[in-house]
């Protein structure tokens, strides 16, 4: 990925010229004739505020100029972002099912292992579905466009723009209404749509449609897995009950 102007998205060769340590001059964009990236001289807090406000120029700075492949090990960042994304998604599942989890964990170590295994399957299957639908839908939307975006760039943009999930850690420490989870999901969806628009230059409606479809399919996959596991638990309880009844009948006949 080449460096970009944060205002118009036009490619630039360099963002600044350094004359001496601490003495730099910001370069102007040849297209819009303004400073290509003023975030270079800004504090990180200003960037965070603009990211929360969903400003596209902040996302261009983050995705093109900060996480540039020629300057950083993008694959290393990608793997770390994937791991953190899955951890935060597991936190969301724990917070959302807190009451059910407490009852299960207090029963036995077997049920604890079952709950952890079910949560792991839920997180992995849901996110595999999410990223598959996201990449496929993005590719289909870009068929009529001359711009080509690699799936690694799309994946990195979605992972980085899901930073709102970090607030789920606070929900594990302090009590919050469960509705806060859906508010965070809404912020994540909006942030994903903005990052996808910056990365692919699709229309806002297309980006919202792609992200909403991916999140909806992720939710559907999680619900299907939940129904399947519940059906398995009911079947297991029914078989256990039948075994107990059979043993009681045999005991009575023996007497």
State the gist of this model.
The chain has helices at 44-52, 56-66, 74-96, 98-105, 109-141, 151-160, 168-173, 179-200, 204-254, and strands at 16-20, 23-26.
List the helices and strands and how they pair.
Layout: E1 16-20, E2 23-26, H1 44-52, H2 56-66, H3 74-96, H4 98-105, H5 109-141, H6 151-160, H7 168-173, H8 179-200, H9 204-254
Antiparallel strand pairs: 1-2
Helix pairs in contact: 1-2, 2-8, 3-5, 3-6, 5-9, 6-8, 8-9
Structure description:
The protein is mostly helical and 255 residues long. It has two domains: 1-72, no CATH class; 74-247, no CATH class. Helices cover 68% and strands 4% of the residues. It contains nine helices and two strands. It has a two-stranded antiparallel ribbon with strand order 1-2. α2 (56-66) packs across α8, α5 (109-141) packs antiparallel against α9 and α8 packs across α9. Belongs to the ARV1 family. The chain crosses the membrane at residues 77-99, 119-142, 154-174. Its main location: endoplasmic reticulum. This is Protein ARV. It holds the Pfam family Arv1.
Average predicted confidence as pLDDT: 84
Percent helix: 55-70%
User: Structural class of the secondary elements?
Assistant: mainly alpha
Order of H and E elements: EEHHHHHHHHH
Give the strand order of the largest sheet, numbering strands 1, 2, ... along the chain.
1-2
Overall 3D shape? elongated
The biggest beta sheet reads: 2 strands, antiparallel
Q: Report the portion of residues in β strands.
A: under 5%
- Count helical runs: 9
Whole-number tally of structural domains: 2
Q: Tell me how many strands there are.
A: 2
Distance from first to last alpha carbon: 81 Å
Radius of gyration in whole Å, from Cα? Answer: 24 Å
- Outline the low-pLDDT stretches: 102-110
């Amino acid at each position: 990925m080449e460096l970009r102007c944060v205002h118009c998205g036009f490619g630039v060769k360099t963002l600044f010229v350094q004359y001496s340590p601490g003495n730099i001059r910001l370069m102007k964009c040849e297209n819009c004739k303004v400073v290509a990236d003023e975030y270079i001289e800004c504090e990180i807090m200003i960037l965070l505020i603009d990211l929360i406000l969903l400003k596209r120029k902040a996302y261009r700075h983050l995705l093109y100029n900060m996480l540039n492949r020629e300057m950083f090990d993008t694959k290393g960042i990608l793997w770390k972002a994937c791991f953190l994304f899955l951890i935060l998604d597991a936190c969301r599942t724990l917070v959302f099912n807190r009451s059910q989890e407490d009852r299960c964990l207090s029963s036995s170590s077997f049920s604890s292992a079952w709950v952890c295994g079910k949560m792991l399957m839920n997180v992995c299957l849901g996110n595999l579905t999410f990223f598959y639908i996201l990449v496929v839908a993005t590719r289909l939307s870009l068929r009529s466009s001359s711009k080509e975006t690699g799936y690694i760039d799309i994946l990195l943009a979605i992972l980085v723009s899901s930073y709102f999930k970090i607030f789920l850690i606070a929900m594990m420490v302090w009590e919050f209404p469960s509705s806060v989870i859906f508010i965070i999901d809404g912020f994540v969806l909006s942030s994903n749509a903005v990052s996808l628009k910056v990365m692919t230059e699709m229309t806002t409606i297309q980006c919202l449609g792609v992200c909403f479809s991916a999140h909806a399919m992720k939710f559907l996959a999680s619900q299907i897995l939940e129904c399947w596991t519940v059906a398995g638990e009911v079947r297991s309880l029914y078989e256990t009950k039948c075994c107990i009844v059979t043993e009681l009948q045999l005991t009575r006949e023996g007497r």
